[in-house]
Design goal:
With 280 residues, this protein is of the alpha/beta class. The chain has two domains: 5-227, HUPs (Rossmann fold); 243-280, no CATH class. 32% of the residues lie in helices and 23% in strands. Bound molecules: flavin-adenine dinucleotide.
Length: 280
């Protein structure tokens, strides 16, 4: 492919796991109070996208769906070397489950245009379902390679190494395809000084920034609002409960055979006491 690959990377903004995000009275995460960050799993997808561009040429487009502050992670992606970003943001998306999310993102990908490879993270640190990547592939009628931890392109074909139970599997697929990247892939490289400086300059000129990062609505991408948000979501979260902070005391067990140690750790752990300590 002379002009290189048209690459899309899917990135999501999630509550910072280090910040103490509380719950709303209805059990949903209080996202307004939580600090925000790029989903850690998506850093590996971003690295895979940028590496593919570096090795084989082409361009990288980052796509995200979320409330307006999610533009922050598209700026971060731009600093790392992504060429452009699209944020799908619309109040009618609130309370979307994975079915509605994958539908809305699928319409956004179609709106963005042609592509050869779509990279997704394996899962997110908030929803944590690992369903969105495979659902996107289904909707786009694409072959999908999941749990990919390494890949190369040879004679126009992607050779991908997947993690499977007890080992690895190498699969060969022709683009267009969708790949979900495992967190054993190479870590995201540091952003370059040039990239960070460029984004800083762009932020001073909003009209120029708009050429690189576009915010779109359901109407722009031609998505049916009935299939988004609460209306388009058959999943109901019945209840969410806080079980207390993790952490506490730790003990070191050593000097015995592994199965003896496992038995000792399991029998020594009082789950009720642990949960009660977390609630205090
Ligand atoms: C009933 C219900 C109500 C919900 N209400 C809300 C709500 O009001 N607000 C809310 O924010 N969430 C809500 N969620 C969670 C939301 O549905 C999921 O976060 C979302 O569908 C993505 O699923 P996931 O986080 O499990 O992603 P996974 O499937 O674990 O993600 C895999 C990969 O898909 C890609 N991806 C996933 N989501 C996005 C995205 N948004 N943009 C770009 N790429 C993405 C990333 O590459 C990611 O690594 C709700 C869930 C349910 C079940």
């Amino acid at each position: 492919m002379a002009s290189g690959y048209k690459i899309i990377v899917m990135v999501k903004q999630v509550p910072d796991t280090g910040s103490k995000a509380g719950l709303n009275p209805d059990g949903t995460i209080d996202r307004a109070r939580a600090k925000r960050m790029l989903n850690p799993f998506d850093k590996f997808a971003l690295q895979a996208a940028l590496h593919t561009k570096k090795m084989y040429g082409g361009s990288v487009t980052a796509i995200s769906m979320g409330p307006p502050p999610a533009v922050e992670i598209l700026l971060e992606a731009l600093e790392h070397g992504v060429d452009r970003g699209f944020l799908l943001s619309d109040r009618r998306l609130a309370a979307s489950d994975t079915l509605a999310t994958a539908y809305a993102l699928y319409k956004t990908i179609q709106y963005v245009g042609d592509f050869d490879i779509i990279f997704c993270g394996l899962q997110t640190t908030d929803g944590d379902t690992a369903q969105v990547g495979p659902q996107l592939a289904e909707r786009l009628n694409l072959p999908q390679v999941t749990y990919c931890e390494d890949f190369s392109v040879q004679n126009g074909e992607v050779h991908a190494r997947r993690i499977i139970e007890g080992g690895h599997q190498t699969v060969i697929a022709k683009p267009p395809l969708l790949v979900t990247i495992a967190n054993s892939y190479h870590p995201l490289e540091y952003k370059s000084f040039r990239g960070a400086w460029r984004v800083q300059q762009l932020q001073r000129k909003q009209e120029e920034l708009a050429q690189y990062i576009k915010t779109v609505t359901l109407d722009d991408v031609g998505a049916d609002p009935e299939r988004c948000g609460l209306k388009g979501s058959p999943t109901i979260v019945a209840k969410t409960e806080k079980v207390g902070e993790l952490g506490g005391s730790c003990s070191i067990h050593e000097g015995k055979a592994v199965d003896e140690l496992v038995k000792e750790v399991i029998t020594g752990c009082n789950v009720k006491e642990f949960l009660a300590a977390g609630k205090k």
